[in-house]
Design goal:
This protein has 152 residues and is an alpha+beta fold.
Length: 152
């Protein structure tokens, strides 16, 4: 019998788990887990500090009070603006139809004004504006308010 006539003998298969599934994964050391935990905690505290200070330093806020529709060509929007006394503000006000499409838009200039004797020291001012509309509006809101360039 020649070597070609003999059945091929295969090497025994190694059935250990390491060969079947790969080496066991290394776990993080206790020190590495502490460092990762401390970094996550510091990032969380930093994020919370950023959120709380960014909202506190916002110098202009607004609140929708109400609206009324006079007819298909006109709407009135009532709102309040809170800003530092003596600061001019601009607000974009819009009227919406039943499908939330904008049917009226106006930028309202709010002058600096004098500090009034109010509970918040004259920071909050009530405003009413009349908008021309293209069709019947069902809602009126303030889109945004900002301090124009060159003001205070």
């Amino acid at each position: 019998m020649t070597s070609q006539d003999q059945p091929a003998v295969s090497a025994p298969a190694d059935t250990s788990l390491a060969n079947r599934y790969g080496r066991q994964k290394r776990t993080l050391s206790r020190n590495a887990k502490r460092i990762i935990g401390a970094a996550a905690l510091a990032a969380g505290i930093g994020f919370m500090a950023w959120v709380s200070t960014s909202s506190a330093t916002s110098s202009v806020t607004f609140k929708d009070i109400g609206y009324s529709t006079t007819d298909a060509t006109q709407a009135e929007v009532d709102f309040q603006v809170t800003r530092e006394p003596g600061t001019a503000v601009k607000c974009a006000v819009k009227a919406l139809d039943s499908k939330y499409a904008v049917v009226g838009w106006k930028v309202v200039d709010i002058p600096p004004g004098e500090a009034e004797a109010t509970a918040d020291g004259g920071r909050t001012i009530s405003q009413r504006t009349v908008l021309k509309t293209e069709s019947l509006s069902v809602s009126g809101i303030v889109d945004s308010c900002w301090i124009p360039d060159g003001s205070k």
